[in-house]
């Protein structure tokens, strides 16, 4: 099982917004969103991190819904190895601890944006087709993206 899938399942089991990292992985749990698992060097996926917000993407903006955008189709437990691909302010800067707003372009999966890697720290819930402003402790602090059905 991919590490990312384990994290993903952990979210579903925990059912809480914070403290996700301690959840134990389990095999064969339905609803684990397939994908590269956020592993370093994972193969590129069409539509993922192409600088455009497509259906199924979770988009993070460098600014408040402006400037460069980073679009994630899958779980990514560490945004420290990703840069904003979209044009505009912030392009090619690291995504980790560097975003001010987000929108979930998926129609069924809920995204969790967490202040630490691999779901650690505090997480904000971004429901399907919902936008969030990352303010307070979340401002320029998101470091991982998890999903749950
Ligand atoms: Ca995209
Ligand atoms: Ca990453
Ligand atoms: Ca952080």
Explained architecture:
The protein is mainly beta and 149 residues long. The protein has one helix at 3-14; strands spanning 58-61, 69-72, 101-104, 110-114, 123-126, 131-133, 144-148. The strands form two sheets. The chain has a four-stranded antiparallel β-sheet, with no helix packed on it. Bound molecules: calcium ion (3 copies).
Summarize the structure.
The protein has one helix at residues 3-14, and strands at residues 58-61, 69-72, 101-104, 110-114, 123-126, 131-133, 144-148. The chain is mostly beta strands and 149 residues long.
How is the topology of this model organized?
Elements lengths: L2 H12 L43 E4 L7 E4 L28 E4 L5 E5 L8 E4 L4 E3 L10 E5 L1
Antiparallel strand pairs: 1-2, 1-3, 3-6, 4-5, 4-7
The chain binds calcium ion (3 copies).
Keywords:
Gamma-B Crystallin, domain 1, four-stranded antiparallel beta sheet, 149 residues, mainly beta, globular, 1 helix, disordered N terminus, binds calcium ion
